[in-house]
Structures are given as structure tokens and as C-alpha cells.
Amino acid sequence: MKNPVYWVVLAGISIALIQQGLPVRSQGESQSDNKQMDNITIRQGETLFLSCSQGDFVTHTAWLNRSSILYAGEDKWSVDPRVSLVTLNQDEFTIKIEDVDLTDEGQYICAVQTSSRPRTTSVHIIVQVPPKIVNLSKDLVVNEGSNVTLMCLANGKPEPAIGWRMLSPSDDSLSSDSEVLEIPFISRYRAGVYECTASNDIAVDTQTVELTVNYPPSVSDGRDVGVTLGQRGVLQCEADAVPEADFEWYRDDRRIFNGFDGIEIEDAGAFSKLTFFNVSEADYGNYTCVAMNKLGSANTSIILYGPGAVQDGNSGTSTVFTPTCLLLIVLLQLLLKF
Fold first, then answer.
1. Quick one: pLDDT at residue 322?
2. What is the mean pLDDT of the chain?
3. d(Cα 250, Cα 271) in Å, to the nearest integer?
4. Do residues 200 and 208 lie in contact, with contact meaning Cβ atoms separated by under 8 Å?
5. Rounded to whole angstroms, how far apart are CA atoms 253 and 263?
6. N-term to C-term CA, the chain
7. Residue 249 pLDDT exceeds 80
């Protein structure tokens, strides 16, 4: 004897349930009680439990997702390994879906056939998805004065709010409440780390972009150095530049190389040192430090002087007064009196 077929009519969709010994009833003869439950909101990745009450004289029961049967009694129809039966007894019919995803969103129906008539309980599942930044500007290297645009796109449900801020160094005046942050005519002081934040009711996602601003060197005023003969003398030069500056040293118009006449040149980041290990009379004079990168150059002059020299600040020039000079000045003052 063939298994008869019972047609359960749910939301206008006829679903064939193969059941043993159940009489066939036409659609026009069916009567049912339909119950709509409140929506259930669940977060992506959590486990969803679907439960409906059975009651007395239940002959057949099933859980359906839209047009697909998940469970018909104890028989699993779904091929999804995440779906499993939790409880099936006279009082309760419960299944669970693990690791819920956005594709699980929609209407679920519990269909129960009693000895008198069928009844259904339906519930709509809403899956919330934490925000995830899916498109972010790459780390940028730009020249000072350029116009910069940073972009950040994110997915999520509810739709996430997106914002930008300057994270390091912190600057509350530089922020945006949209997907795009515009920085016109950028200066070196806007270089740093920028943070994009995407947030909704579920969670927050953040990612950062590092912005490097290139600019030409600027050199600090050189400090003149006085050293006695035979002693060690060091001239120092400091330059602010991105990328870091390369240094060159000159005596008058002649470039000085490391090891030249016992002179050592040592570069370390923003600093360069010119070291004399045994200062001689010939070493006294004016030296020029030149700092350069691909955007430009800058220089400063430093004087190495010996005993008896009087320096005029840090201007890079010096005036030396010898006893002969002092005698001439005295004679000139006496002549002026007459």
C-alpha cells in the first residue's frame, strides 16, 4: 500500500508531507488555526532555538523555513548540518540552528496536525550582523600641500555609522562623521595615524591608516664651536625633513668626506656630526652643513675657532681680534682726539 500524502497549506504554498496512514484532505476541506509570534532578533554566529507547543492529540508536526521542510517529526529533511532536533514530545517541538548567518533570516513555521484540524505558528527571524570594514584607504605617502581623501566602507545590519578621527597625534578638530575624510592642502602637522570606526547596535569595528607627509629640509641654526689646539672638536647639524635628509659638509667651497685629514663624519637620523680628533691651526674656519632630500635642501654655517677669537653669536661668522688689531684701535682713538 502506498503512503498517502497530506497537503499542508501554509502562506499559499502547498508542501507534500509523506506520512504513514494519514487520510488525504483537499485544500477546500482544510481548516487551520494560524498564530503569528513576535519577531525574534538574533546576532550572527549565535544559536537559534525554535520551539512550538504541541498539545493533545497531535498526529504529525513539522518545522519549515519558507518553502523548505527542516524537520518532519523526528525525521530531518534539511541537509544543513547546523540544524538539529532538540526536543519532540507531547508538549514541545524544538529545533536549533547553530552559527546563524544572514541567509537564515526569514519566516519559520511550525505546522501541527491534530486529530481535528491543522494549526500553524509562524515567526520571523531577524539576523543582526556586526559591522565589518570592507574597503579602506591604503597607507598614504603624499607631499606637503597635496589634497588628501581617505575613504572607509563597511557592511553590517543594522547599517553601521562610519566616522573618522586623527588618532595619533590626537587632534579632535580633524574628524568626520561620514565615509570620507577630506584634508585639503595638507601640512606636515597633519601626518599621523587616522582611525575609521564603523558601529551599530551590535559591535564596533576599527581600522587605521597611516598618512606620511613629505616636506623639504629645514636646518637649525648652527652653534659655533671654540676648541684649543690639539683638542677634540665636534660640529653638529640638525635637520627636520621627511624623508630624512642626507647630509654633506663643506669647508668654503670644498666638500669634506669622511676620513679626510683625520675628520670623521657621522650621520644618525636627523643629526650629522663633523668630528676633529686633533684640532690644528688649519682646521679653524667656516664650515657649511647642507641637508637635502628629494624635495629640496637647506644649509647652515658653523665656525670652528680657537683661543683669542670673539664670536658674534651663532651667525656663522666670527671676528678675530689680535694684539696688533687692539694697538691700531688705540692709535686711531688718539688721532681722533686731535
1. 32
2. 83
3. 16
4. no
5. 17
6. 150
7. yes
What is the rounded distance in angstroms from the CA atom of residue 157 to the CA atom of residue 44? 10
Helix intervals (H) in 125-167: none
pLDDT at 69 over 70: yes
Q: How far apart (Å, rounded) are the C-alpha atoms in residues 223 and 313? A: 8
Residue type, 168: S
Length of the chain: 338
Q: How far apart are CA 140 and CA 245, in angstroms?
A: 20
Instruction: Tell me if the pTM is above 0.85.
Output: no
- Average pLDDT of 320-338? 36
Distance set, CA 55 to CA 49, 119, 129, 306 (Å): 19, 11, 36, 109
- Whether 197 and 206 have beta carbons less than 8 Å apart is answered as yes
C-alpha cell at 110: 511550525
Q: Scanning the structure block, which residue is given the C-alpha cell 603624499?
A: 142
Of 258 and 35, which is predicted with more confidence? Answer: 258
The number of beta carbons lying within 10 Å of the beta carbon of residue 11 is 12
| Grid cell digits, residue 205 | 569595528
Return the pLDDT at 188.
Answer: 96
Tally Cβ neighbours within 10 Å of residue 298. Answer: 18
Order of strands across the sheet that contains 285-293: 225-226, 296-305, 285-293, 246-251, 254-256
Q: Which residue type, as a one-letter code, is found at position 21?
A: G
Task: Establish whether the linkage from the previous residue to 184 is cis, with ω within 30° of 0.
Answer: no
